[in-house]
Amino acid sequence: MPEDIRINQLSKNYHGKKVLDELSFTIKSGAVTALMAPSGAGKTTLLRILMGLEEADSGSVEGLRGLRLSAVFQEDRLCGNLSPLSNIRLTAGTHFPRQVIMQALEETDLLSCATQPVRELSGGQSRRVALLRALLSPYDLLLLDEPFKGLDTKTRHRIMDYTLTSIRRDNDDIIAKTVLLVTHDETEASYMADEILQPFSL
């Protein structure tokens, strides 16, 4: 199993404004860790640094080398002209055959729109497609940035259950996946996470 991921005194400034201020915490391997903080606390900036999309001004991240990352962003970032099935197959590759993807679409109530262009879907449907695309890809670390936003209460609980089942299912001989969930919702964090952290300075 991969080692724990350690964030050590990570700092980031934008135009003189401090967004991350010597942030330190550990993401435990094989567990779901929830980071809680209100909007504007720097959670998304942290995820962008972990994904290599930005560089920190100071500090370090240990344990990421060699890991396959998958992510759900705050924006869905789907290909609007493609169907849910085609969007998911872009990242699934040969690791998840078509029948597995179709089963996932059925379990998340997306089978009826599986071949429609994503641009024709509702916000809630698009959000579920974005989540499936992240889950149905080979990864060691899954980064979830407010993944259930825009879902009604009933759908949200069903999709949270599906997500937990998916990340705890054996895949590539890895018993459990490492997940970092970013949320401002305490109920969501309590339901999903093995550990809840609030490391941000406000």
Topology:
Elements: E1 5-14, E2 17-27, E3 32-36, H1 43-50, E4 58-62, E5 69-72, H2 84-92, H3 98-107, H4 123-135, E6 141-145, H5 153-167, E7 178-183, H6 186-192, E8 195-197
Parallel strand pairs: 3-7, 3-8, 5-6, 6-7
Antiparallel strand pairs: 1-2, 1-4
**Highest CATH level, the class of the domain at 1-68 and 141-147 and 177-202:** Alpha Beta
For the sheet with most strands, the description reads:
5 strands, parallel
Within CATH, the superfamily of the domain at 1-68 and 141-147 and 177-202 carries the name: P-loop containing nucleotide triphosphate hydrolases
Q: Report the radius of gyration as a whole number of Å.
A: 17 Å
Tell me the structural class. alpha/beta
Determine the oligomeric state from the structure.
single chain
Estimate what percentage of residues fall within beta strands: 15-25%
- Fraction in helix: 25-40%
Q: What is the CA-CA span between the terminal residues? A: 34 Å
Question: Stretches where pLDDT falls below 50 for ≥5 residues?
Answer: none
Any overview of this molecule?
The chain has helices at residues 43-50, 84-92, 98-107, 123-135, 153-167, 186-192, and strands at residues 5-14, 17-27, 32-36, 58-62, 69-72, 141-145, 178-183, 195-197. The chain is an alpha/beta fold. It has a domain at 1-68 and 141-147 and 177-202: 3-Layer(aba) Sandwich (Rossmann fold). The strands form 2 sheets. It has a 5-stranded parallel sheet, sandwiched between helices. Helix 2 packs parallel to helix 4 (123-135). It is globular, with a radius of gyration of 17 Å.
